[in-house]
Design a protein that fits this description.
four-stranded antiparallel beta sheet, Lipoprotein SmpA/OmlA domain-containing protein, 2 domains, alpha+beta, 31% strand
């Protein structure tokens, strides 16, 4: 337990160290700290618990979204949504199949994807398809190490999504030394 207290103290001294708190939660076998944030608490309380957000976006209806990504290698991005009065509406991990399933082909733009999921871990351009692709790491159904790809046409509209295994976690593709 003393080990966990040291990790929490370290995370509190280095604002924004969500990753250290997630590790502490996993090692302790307890609920991650972001899951203990109830609706209705203030922005200041969230910042005290999770640190300064790495990304901030405006969503429709006056909602502000703070994102705490664990990229480039992490598979989680914690989103904290606030109402117009600065109170928490809900807290969730947006790197999930359920969240990705909400993407609307032909309607969403690059801005919509960025506001919901944050900055991608990787971008690429496929000239033959004329598509820009944004990639995010996630754990599909809490089990499979996957990549979610969002394909955009030149006008910035989402045209296709694709899920593929994450080669970073493929034991057959790792180099053994």
């Amino acid at each position: 337990m003393a080990f966990l207290r040291r990790i929490v103290r370290l995370a509190q001294t280095r604002r924004g160290s969500l990753a250290a708190l997630l590790v502490a939660g996993c090692l302790a076998g307890c609920t991650p700290i972001w899951q203990t944030i109830p609706a209705g608490v203030s922005r200041a309380d969230v910042e005290t618990r999770l640190g300064t957000p790495r990304e901030v976006y405006q969503l429709p209806d006056g909602v502000t979204r703070w994102l705490y990504p664990t990229r480039p290698y992490g598979q989680h991005t914690i989103a904290v949504d606030f109402d117009a009065h600065g109170r928490v509406l809900h807290v969730q991990d947006v790197m999930t199949s359920r969240a990705f399933d909400q993407a609307q082909i032909g309607k969403w733009t690059e801005d919509d994807v960025r506001r919901r999921f944050g900055i991608p871990v990787e971008t690429a351009y496929f000239p033959l398809m004329k598509r820009e692709v944004w990639t995010y790491r996630f754990k599909q159904y809490g089990t499979w190490d996957m990549l979610m790809h969002f394909y955009f046409s030149p006008d910035g509209i989402l045209r296709m999504t694709q899920t593929t295994p994450d080669p970073l976690h493929d034991p057959d593709r790792r180099l053994l030394f």
